[in-house]
Write a structure and sequence with these properties.
By secondary structure, the chain is of the alpha+beta class. Helix content is 44%, strand content 11%.
């Protein structure tokens, strides 16, 4: 499971993402600098990279038969 932290989000501030990541065993927390509550053009690339990285981890685990990461 991928949890994305948006440091500039006033609705769901960073402590919420950290707490959520701790609650979800095996999750990966990624902080996207400059990200607020809305997804703006300046953060699309790092958000996409985080998602693709998580998909890559899941594919690698599936191909080796290891337990999927949440």
């Amino acid at each position: 499971m991928l949890v994305i932290e948006a440091p500039d989000d006033p609705v769901n501030p960073p402590p919420h993402a950290t707490h959520l990541a701790r609650l979800i065993g095996g999750s990966r927390l990624v902080r996207i600098q400059g990200m607020g509550h809305a997804l703006n053009a300046t953060v699309v690339e790092p958000v996409a990279a985080a998602i693709l990285g998580q998909v890559g981890l899941a594919n690698a685990q599936a191909s080796t038969g290891s337990a999927p990461q949440r």
